[in-house]
Amino acid sequence: MTATKMDGKIAAAAIKEDLKARVAALAEKGVTPGLGTVLVGDDPGSHAYVRGKHRDCAEVGIASLRVDLPEDTSQERLAEEIARLNEDPACTGYIVQLPLPAHLHDNWALEQIDPDKDADGLHPTNLGRLVLGVEAPLPCTPRGIVDLLRRNDVPLKGAEVCIVGRGTTVGRPLGLLLTRRTENATVTLCHTGTRDLAEHTRRADIVVGAAGSPGLITGDMIRPGAVLVDVGMTRTEAGLVGDFDPSVWEVASKVAPTPGGIGLMTRAMLLANVVERAEKLAR
Ligand SMILES: Nc1nc2c(c(=O)[nH]1)N[C@@H](CN(C=O)c1ccc(C(=O)N[C@@H](CCC(=O)O)C(=O)O)cc1)CN2
């Protein structure tokens, strides 16, 4: 068996086309959605991701507000910029690019964001709303995973899903999303303390690699015909590498690879969150 690719580029392009039309409809009502980004430091990967987000905004007609701060930014200075975006009416939603430099704290920064402007869906209030099943912006990567699976006709109802990685941007919120009544999957959340990872991955219809451990999951660890979603993104000398070893392509039925899969869906879902918030404001 050679797996087929679940293509994030094709799906993201379709999502952006739809959003472009919705942004044009908002313009007729005098509303322009505006995405803010706060980037602290010099990490080349983070700079590339933020550049990509602003390129996407330009493509669909969303205004961009960009705040770039030096590596040695103090917590007080960062708090000022976040407070400014909370108050700025031109900014309908914004993100703080993660991870922040070590002297700042990701969770502290997320808590400073006005939950109504939280374009990433990562504010504790919005994660809490996800737990409660109340409407809220959804975290972009988990939302992108569910969207890509649906577009590729992967059944979720009753599916056994093994998520490898318990991070707060992907693994944990994805477990919450997939176990909602609308998705109705059964989730096993594995992590570095899991005793026998292969025992869990082999049982699953869908395996999500979100551990950031290159090549962790090999072909012998999955069942024939399984659907795989790679969220791992580790930069190596060989380029960008995901959590799945190339041997999985001979065993799986469908794969969302790194690169070309979920990263692009993450970007598209950020735009969707910003447009949805603007639509709410226009009602
Ligand atoms: N505030 C946030 N910070 C971070 C998030 C997030 O969702 N919100 N996620 C990641 C980084 N990220 C978005 O910010 C992101 C990662 C990867 C991609 C992407 O397009 N990947 C491409 C490959 C790009 C490359 O070659 O480098 C792909 O997978 O094809 C987009 C966004 C951590 N921080």
General description of the model:
Residues 139-280 form the Tetrahydrofolate dehydrogenase/cyclohydrolase NAD(P)-binding domain. Pfam families: THF_DHG_CYH (PF00763), THF_DHG_CYH_C (PF02882). Keywords: Amino-acid biosynthesis, Histidine biosynthesis, Hydrolase, Methionine biosynthesis, Multifunctional enzyme, NADP, One-carbon metabolism, Oxidoreductase, Purine biosynthesis. It catalyses: (6R)-5,10-methenyltetrahydrofolate + H2O = (6R)-10-formyltetrahydrofolate + H(+); (6R)-5,10-methylene-5,6,7,8-tetrahydrofolate + NADP(+) = (6R)-5,10-methenyltetrahydrofolate + NADPH. With 283 residues, the protein is an alpha/beta fold. The chain folds into two domains: 29-116, 3-Layer(aba) Sandwich (Rossmann fold); 140-263, 3-Layer(aba) Sandwich (Rossmann fold). It has helices at 8-28, 44-60, 75-87, 106-112, 124-132, 140-151, 171-178, 197-201, 262-282, and strands at 4-5, 34-40, 63-69, 93-96, 160-164, 186-190, 206-209, 227-230, 234-236, 239-241, 254-256. Strands 1-11-8-7-5-6 form a six-stranded parallel β-sheet. The chain is globular and about 50 Å long. The structure holds the ligand Nc1nc2c(c(=O)[nH]1)N[C@@H](CN(C=O)c1ccc(C(=O)N[C@@H](CCC(=O)O)C(=O)O)cc1)CN2. Ligand LMY7XDAE is lined by residues 48-49, 52, 95-98, 120, 140-141, 169, 233, 240, 258-261, 263-264, 266-267.
